Protein 1
Amino acid sequence: MNVSEAISLRHSYRGRYRPSKVPREDLVSIMKAGLAAPSGCNMQTTSLIAVDDPETLKRLRAVITPPVCETAPAMICVLTQRINAYRDHCYAVQDYSAAIENMLLAMTELGYSSCWIEGHITDEDRIGAQMAVILGVPEDYELVCFLPVGIAETSPVPPKKKEFEKRAWFNYFHENR
């Protein structure tokens, strides 16, 4: 599969997963893809924790309310450090976003499905912080996202996208409604 194929085949999947274990070497490949992403001023603010232990997954799922991705046999938790870089700007959000997209594409290439789950765990109930405690994450890191990893029980349904011509132009902005 080439990069263009992975981009067009990648879709968020929120359904049930097959119980097949995700091999560690696949989790390593996925995380390496994430850590290869660009990072503002090379501050490398993104770190990752792969979780494939059934007992740890059970403990994490117990704090995720409402429940999502309960049947995924593995997950990758995305951590960030809010470190200022160029002219006191922090690029942590851009850094972990690039890492997440790389991992989603790597998962697609390997035949896995996933979903970027961030808002669900970073709002006022601070589920990400509860997950971080379970994983022993130091206080200077924030758990901002998790990606379930597994083989989908059903085929992911691609979302309807707006036409190219309504979102991309050459040389100047041209809105065609």
Protein 2
Amino acid sequence: MEATEKKVIEKALEGDRNAVKLLYDRYSDFLTAICSRFFPARVDQCDILQDSFVKIFSSLDRFVYKGEGSLKAWMKQITINECLKTLRNRKRSVPIVYEGELRDTEEEDDSGPPDLTDVPAGVIHRMIQELPEGYRAVFNLFALERKPHKEIARLLGISESTSASQFARAKGLLAKKIIEYSSNNKVNKKR
């Protein structure tokens, strides 16, 4: 796209509808992917994306341009915050179990991380989406957003030790799913 980020922001702030549409078109797929890491249901992703864009466009005048890519990072953070807000609201109305979920799958596996060589990224993404909501939230924040457990605990309203244990359990479930996928793939290739 020939329009620079800074120019598009300036035009959007002036009320140019084409600039607003360009920003939406340019970043909606990226922000939807972020929503999908936290919420597998398309309806949830669309709702959060809409809430995110409302917040983005209503606070665009407070955005401080720091170079190419700074808008994308700012929008990403707003979207993550909207995802977390939705999780917290759900936790109030329908408890999200963080401790004690899936006790029968918590076996520690000391064999190291599974081999991801033959597992497509889309399959791994789907596996992450299949994690229980609490596990998925902690996994995304720790492994993908690089947030420390102390911050995750604050963001989700859980203890730091719960965050760490949920990450370990999520990692264990993912490892199990990856091993099963790899095993099934090898069996299907032999046929």
Protein 3
Amino acid sequence: MNPQQTQEKDYILSVLARNHAGVLLRISGLISRRCYNIKSIVAAQTEDEQYSEMIIVVQGTDREVRQVDKQLSKLEEIERVTVLDRDEAIVREHLLLKVNRTAENSERLVEIANVFHANILNVSENSMSVELTGDPGTLNSFAELYKPYGIQKILRTGAMAMEK
């Protein structure tokens, strides 16, 4: 058996569906019933209000993802399922982070934000909130640099992706 077929990794599925009530529930239910791990889902209406696009990151083997693709394609509301190749796609996530701020560390927190071209959203006496959009590795590095200062809260979207 081909090692790629048995090696688990993350796959990005782009699913175009008719914009009907419950379609996201049916899609996530189909994936979870087959015991595949959904790492993230980002869903929104497209430029045509009749359709929604969902970007779903699942973990599994090549064979399992092909099976999910086939099963999703059988759903009545599904127009298209595409398994995106990370090397041939633009992949971005969005991060909001709130970190402890003091008079002593304030300048350093701003320097880190500037290096990553992050936006400073709010500064209070005890905290600073920032946002950053980028690839998952960049967001991980950004969060790691803020960790020593005490992250109060961190929120991340799942992956958003489209073909180049």
Protein 4
Amino acid sequence: MDFAEVKKSSRQIFAGKIIKVRVDTVELPNGREAARECVEHPGAVAVIARDDQDRVCMVRQYRYPVGEMLWEIPAGKLSPGEDPLECARRELLEETGITAATWEKLYCYYTTPGFTDEVMHLYLATGLIRGDNQPDEDEFLDVEMFPYPEACAMMRRGEIKDGKTLIALLHLGQRE
């Protein structure tokens, strides 16, 4: 059976700096109609930076929507038309001061497909060179290198709650 829903109408209800929100009326496979609230997002990148001593770089920052300080891998929003790899390089440098000799694209995935079209591009960066970070004027963060086993322990203790970071750490464990 084809479960595709067909858009009948669409109404934008919000347009902000980062996201747009629309409400679509769709026809369901059974012929009935339903409303779908959709958040449009330009996409993002995330970088798991791993050094020669098996340490991973994470940043700690306050995330207003959840009201908590979170440990996360470096990440950022794509600009319109921006190449994801170039965005990953820019974000890693801005947030951590790190440049990398080697880049590998790991995954492209939908962050929360139940309500947003955001696509996350996940990269592994190795051959790291440390420098000074250059955060945006509205970014306040701590940068720390964690031994991979300690980052996994933090994950098990529930100290890492960010989805992209959990995916990246679990991926590294599968590469071993």
